[in-house]
Design a protein that fits this description.
Layout (H helix, E strand, L loop, with lengths): L2 H23 L6 H8 L3 H7 L3 H25 L4 H20 L5 H11 L1 H25 L11 H14 L8 H18 L3
Helix pairs in contact: 1-2, 1-4, 4-5, 4-7, 5-7, 5-9, 7-8
Length: about 200
């Protein structure tokens, strides 16, 4: 393993520990000491890789984003009907994010932190879904499996509406991942039906 690989592994280890810590205790109640303990590392080791807790938070979002990217790519590689792939993409993106934080009592705080210190990372995270669902729609249209024209929306507007529906299907707190996953499948079914020929 090269020094670069070791650094990447260590950064991911810290990001995973931060995810567990933030999900349980929130951002404000988690210090760099707490994250170091959660990761099983010395606090000085954290500061070799990060300037502070904000940077750790951004690294945590990037880690989740890489997981979501891999899941979305796997969905796109699978052979399945449009509606099934759409549901799987929704779960790969929104379901993964919700599984990380969704039913926790700190969700509101973590969302606020995301918007205040990690805007670029949140945009990159949302772009993962938008890119994959756009490719899915283009492919399904080319095959004649769907007709986006039936929706009366341009492709970008259709994708944006789908994303708003998925985000709006989760309450602030208290919903199990299973119930949210069911809601995502229902959204996929409605959107797929709206553009089926």
């Amino acid at each position: 393993m090269t020094a670069s690989d070791e650094a990447t592994t260590r950064v991911d280890q810290i990001a995973e520990a931060a995810l567990r810590r933030f999900a349980r205790y929130g951002f404000k109640r988690s210090s760099m000491d707490d994250i170091a303990r959660e990761a099983g590392l010395a606090k000085a080791t954290l500061y070799l890789h990060f300037k502070g807790k904000d940077d750790v938070f951004r690294a945590m979002l990037a880690l989740i984003g890489r997981s979501v990217e891999a899941r979305c790519a796997a969905v796109m590689a699978a052979r399945a009907p449009f509606a099934a792939k759409l549901a799987a993409l929704l779960d790969a993106h929104y379901g993964t994010g919700y599984a990380c934080f969704g039913s926790g009592e700190h969700l509101v705080e973590l969302k606020s932190v995301m918007l205040s210190i990690a805007g670029a990372e949140v945009e990159a995270f949302e772009a993962i879904f938008a890119r994959h669902v756009t490719m899915l729609i283009e492919s399904a249209e080319a095959e004649g499996a769907i007709s986006l024209e039936r929706s009366g929306l341009a492709r970008a507007d259709f994708v944006a509406t789908l994303m708003r529906a998925a985000a709006g299907a989760k309450p602030v707190t208290g919903l199990s991942h299973e119930i949210y996953a069911t809601r995502l499948r229902e959204i996929a079914a409605v959107f797929a039906a709206a553009i089926s020929p």
